[in-house]
Amino acid sequence: MKMLINVPETVVADALRGLAAAHPDLTVNVENRVIVRRDAPVSGQVGLVSGGGSGHEPLHGGFVGPGMLSAACPGEVFTSPVPDQMLRAAAAVDSGAGVLFIVKNYTGDVLNFDMAAEMAEDEGIQIAKVLVNDDVAVTDSLYTAGRRGTGATLFVEKIAGAAAAEGMPLERVETIARQVNENSRSFGIALSACSTPAKGSPTFDLPPGELELGIGIHGEPGRERRAMMTSGEIAEAAVEAVVEDLQPRNPVLVLVNGMGATPLLELYGFNAEVHRVLAQRGVPVARVLVGNYVTSLDMAGASLTLCQVDEELLRLYDAPVKTPGLRWGV
Amino acid sequence: MKMLINVPETVVADALRGLAAAHPDLTVNVENRVIVRRDAPVSGQVGLVSGGGSGHEPLHGGFVGPGMLSAACPGEVFTSPVPDQMLRAAAAVDSGAGVLFIVKNYTGDVLNFDMAAEMAEDEGIQIAKVLVNDDVAVTDSLYTAGRRGTGATLFVEKIAGAAAAEGMPLERVETIARQVNENSRSFGIALSACSTPAKGSPTFDLPPGELELGIGIHGEPGRERRAMMTSGEIAEAAVEAVVEDLQPRNPVLVLVNGMGATPLLELYGFNAEVHRVLAQRGVPVARVLVGNYVTSLDMAGASLTLCQVDEELLRLYDAPVKTPGLRWGV
């Protein structure tokens, strides 16, 4: 698999240099791998820190900025960042109001954020944590005990980020972040595997004429392989999986997310089918995002995330945000 | 090649239905294939209309909204829209201040926009046209006499859109659009071919271990095939091609654009190399955009566009814009 890289060993560092060159609002520590909003710490505001393996961009580094994350810690591709990164990020963004760690549910991430939380508290930084585990496809997976954290991470970071920007205290920001996660469900499908720079070839084998339902964002196995389906059939499977589990009664935020290599033309077509099925099931839609937000390198495919919102969560979702990957209102 | 579609025949209509579902600020005429900002025509403002083959999303439909295009006309995949679409768009956005057609230099687009301009003028709509032809790679190509129009289209639409939003008269908006094009140059590279839904397989053959320098946004042949190069070497080739032709003396806007299937992680790494080479050549950078903006379905690769700006063009570039694909300040 050909890649637009120098050598596999420098992929993350090269990307961080490029992020710094593109976004003067961010402070990028390339050596220590921490991305911080330039004006951090913001007086009186809770700091939000997330992180995880690289290869899911714009998640997380592209979501750093006013109204969303205060800092992000990128690991190697598909590999957890280390506690030192998280500690450094927490120290950089803590204004004294405390820091919320937003952790996708993968075993390495969970362990390392736990360790970082202990280290930070030893240094006098108050830490709260929220675990994102929205993927309904499977329980227990290649890197995860329990459900995986995927597309809902965007909604948790956006909505909790708005709560922090309003000056809400740590306990309240944590409660809201947990509320977003509990009201979110995701389901992904893959048409092709992705290739990591280190391996240089597809990470799993998906034969011509087949797709995988319930794929993880690292290509972890899903629920089943099927003969290729139409966009409408895939939307029916994805909406059913998510809605049966979530049982939404309020309006939902919809994220139709590309895994990386699927053209926007196809994602919008898929969005049409998702809306058709949601309407059939009587699920009201509050807001829609279509694009590549929580990706898996060059995987072809898509995921659907629904997040049920009340008036407060919707207001916080609509609040201004200014990051490389998500921006409105400023 | 597996695709997230229903059938090839409905790909564009399906995407337009999905665009309408996601973006209530747009009026999408699915049957007649015209995307119009909902508040058009805007009193006292010049209307901006562009269009072209589908498959380059977010260009053009994703750039419709306040501060950018008033309307867009999507053709079939990689196929020019027809004059009736352009006429309908012009009629929908003309407030009496006239309409600027922004036309990428492909033979079909040029002929059809010319015909639409005549038809519109017959109906009393004042029309001006600007041709975008920024691609330095080749003169005359598969679909083009002269240079192809590629990444600079984004800058033309953004900056002319801001000029129109300020209430500048048609002649002035046209002059500014032309000035942006004359000060812009692009160069693209492909690591893989793209597959159109109709064909269902790659549109050209690019062997393992080779890349194509100077590729067009439909996979038209470029300058040469080469053995695979590093990101740094590719940046050197792209910057040299663009800078030698443009000879910039003022600061430049930089667009590091993904062709569709190249991960953002790689695009940011490429951006780092582009900045390294620009710094070596003493080219000052005013603003940077990194992402998938002018794509070629699922092609892997990237393009570089530089646009030399004076104070007025930079001010117009920075002005607020609110579209699905580009948004800031609102």
Would you kindly provide a written description of the structure presented here, covering whatever features stand out?
The structure is a homodimer of 330-residue chains. Helix content of chain A is 32%, strand content 23%. A six-stranded mixed β-sheet of chain A has the order 1-2-4-3-5-6, sandwiched between helices. Chain A has a six-stranded mixed β-sheet with strand order 9-8-7-12-10-11. A two-stranded antiparallel sheet of chain A has the order 13-14. Chain A is globular. Chain A has helices spanning 11-22, 83-93, 107-122, 152-165, 170-182, 231-246, 264-280, 311-318; strands spanning 26-29, 34-37, 47-54, 71-77, 99-104, 127-132, 184-190, 210-213, 224-227, 252-258, 285-291, 301-308, 321-322, 327-328. Chain A has 330 residues and is an alpha/beta fold. The first copy, chain A, folds into two domains: 8-182 and 318-328, Dihydroxyacetone kinase, domain 1 (Rossmann fold, 3-Layer(aba) Sandwich); 184-312, Hypothetical Protein Tm841, Chain: A,domain 3 (2-Layer Sandwich). Chains A and B meet through helix 1, helix 6, helix 7, strand 11 and strand 14 of A and helix 1, helix 6, helix 7, strand 11 and strand 14 of B. Chains A, B: Pathway: Polyol metabolism; glycerol degradation. Chains A, B: Its EC number is 2.7.1.121.
Order of helices and strands of chain A: HEEEEHEHEHHEEEHEHEEHEE
Low-confidence stretches of chain A: none
CATH-assigned homologous superfamily of the largest domain in chain A? Dihydroxyacetone kinase, domain 1
- The number of helical elements of chain A comes to 8
CATH topology of the largest domain in chain A: Rossmann fold
Which architecture of the largest domain in chain A would the CATH scheme give at its second level? 3-Layer(aba) Sandwich
The multimeric state of the shown protein is homodimer
The N- to C-terminal Cα distance of chain A equals: 39 Å
Shape of chain A: globular
Assigned CATH class of the largest domain in chain A: Alpha Beta
**SS-based structural class of chain A?**
alpha/beta
Radius of gyration of chain A: 19 Å
Major sheet attributes of chain A = 6 strands, mixed
